[in-house]
Amino acid sequence: MVDPTRGVLYPARLPQFHRLPPPVDAAELVEWCWIPEWDIEPGRSSRQDLVSFPALNLVVEEGGAVLSGATTRVSARELTGRGWAVGALLRPAAVAALTEAPSALLDRVEAYPAAGLPEAVAHAMSSGDGHRERAVAALCDWLRERVGEVTAPARHANAMAELLMSDPDVRTPEQAAARLAVSVRTLQRMAHRHVGLSPAAMIRRRRLQEAAERIRSDPGTDLATVAADLGYADQSHLANDFRAVLGFTASAYRAHAGPGGA
């Protein structure tokens, strides 16, 4: 399981937060499920800043369900009051059954007509001990029924996303295409159809997440070393990536993001 704080810029700000694996029979559809629960004093709030994974999320809250697209920049949410959410980080194999154009959802969240799902998840979340596991099961059961049988092309799309997001030796779309035994053009079409981002953008997001994780865990780390280890041409390229996506530099992040940082 990936570090549950990966992609979270300031873990110290998190409310109660859990990442749970999907049931075995939904593993081709869901990377993991995530559940924040919060109870914040009146007049206060908790801001959550994320470098999201390049994937779509199906999210259920007390008000209904939404489909959240991949993002091209840092995303943020201000939590207030009391509440919860149950989300599924979708693998590419699940996406085609939910939207014909994931690229149209880039940096957007849309209400999703998931009949029966919000009620089933809300019931699970109010059911006492084991409520998170039951909520995950309800979401994954609904998704598995909606998607149906997973096809060979869908499995190939899953392999694409896994390669781009987990293999540090894959630093270019050309390398990824060679590993998957497809042309670069085919790889680009797969990413567009199942994620909405280009392969190059997915690789950049992986490297940025890894860089943020390393800087946060060791604020004294040398940024030039981080850049070299992750395949950036030099430290300035790492700085440019941080600035373009997050709006601040790697140095500024290092100054504020240590364990317990703001």
TrEMBL record:
Residues 155-256 form the HTH araC/xylS-type domain. It comes from the Bacteria. Keywords: DNA-binding, Transcription, Transcription regulation. One of its GO terms (molecular function) is DNA-binding transcription factor activity. Signal peptide: none annotated. This is Transcriptional activator FeaR.
